[in-house]
Each structure stands twice: as structure tokens, then as C-alpha cells.
Amino acid sequence: MALDPSDLPDGVRLFLEERRIGTLTTLRPDGSPHVVAIGFTWDGDAGIVRVISFASSRKAANLRANPRSRAAVCQVDGGRWITLEGTATVTDDPARVSEAVRRYAERYQPPRPRDDRVAIEIEVDRVLGRA
């Protein structure tokens, strides 16, 4: 079921706050999908999904190879599921990475320090799911 990213139902918003792992799908340079388990956060006010990673990760490399490409984050729990799709960017901007780390620590736990930390930000324009 398609949902309005700017007006998600309460059940969906609560589902996105639960401490759950999701998947991130990006496209490799050859066009094949790369799917990896990730922790992520949803910023409903900004309409952004944030994923923390490291600069040399395959997911970051995929997005850098095709700037402003699309990506999808999916979270599943039994019959409840949500997919957040949009344009993705990789940033090493200290303020943006710090915000991603802060949000990750609130939802999951503080990540181990890394000098090569980056944030993947997805500007969500399509939401599908049932929660």
C-alpha cells in the first residue's frame, strides 16, 4: 500500500521507532542490486532516512558511482513491513555525520568510533507498507 511520506499513520511511525534492523538496497555499477542489513533512522520532519557507514563500504561506493541515485530501506516484522525509497547521497560532512550517529545511538546503541565514518541520507519520496 502506498503511503504519503509527509503524513504517515501513527502505526507506521511507531513501527519506524522500534529497535529493528532493516535492509538497504543500492545498485552496483553493473545495475545489479546490492542488499545489506543495516541500522537506520527515520527523520519524519525532514523526510530523511539516515544510515551510518564507512567511506570504503560497498554501499557508499555504489552511491558515489552514481550520484543522486535511488536507494531503498526496508524493515520487516512478520506481516508488518515498510519500504522507504528516495534519492540517496553519501556525506562526510561532520555535522551531518554527527546527526546520523546521534540518531543511530538513540535508536540502537552508540556505534564504535571510526575516523572514516560517513552518513547515507535518503530523501524519501515514496513509502510502501503495512504496519
Mean pLDDT across all amino acids = 96
The CA-CA distance between the termini, in Å, is 10 Å
Number of helices: 3
Low-confidence regions: none
Task: Summarize the main sheet.
Answer: 8 strands, antiparallel
The H-and-E topology, N to C, reads as EHEEEEHEEHE
Roughly what percent helix? 10-25%
From the alpha carbons, calculate the radius of gyration and give it in angstroms.
14 Å
Strand tally, please?
8
Residue fraction in strands: 35-45%
Instruction: Tell the overall outline.
Output: globular
- Structure class: alpha+beta
Keywords:
alpha+beta, 131 residues
Description:
- By secondary structure, the chain is α+β, with helices and mostly antiparallel strands.
- Helices cover 23% and strands 44% of the residues.
- The protein is built from 3 helices and 8 strands.
- The chain has helices spanning 10-17, 58-65, 94-107; strands at 2-3, 22-27, 33-38, 41-43, 48-54, 70-77, 80-91, 117-130.
Provide a short characterization of the protein structure.
By secondary structure, the protein is of the alpha+beta class. The protein is 23% helix and 44% strand.
Task: Set out the fold topology.
Layout: E1 2-3, H1 10-17, E2 22-27, E3 33-38, E4 41-43, E5 48-54, H2 58-65, E6 70-77, E7 80-91, H3 94-107, E8 117-130
Antiparallel strand pairs: 1-8, 2-3, 2-6, 4-5, 5-8, 6-7, 7-8
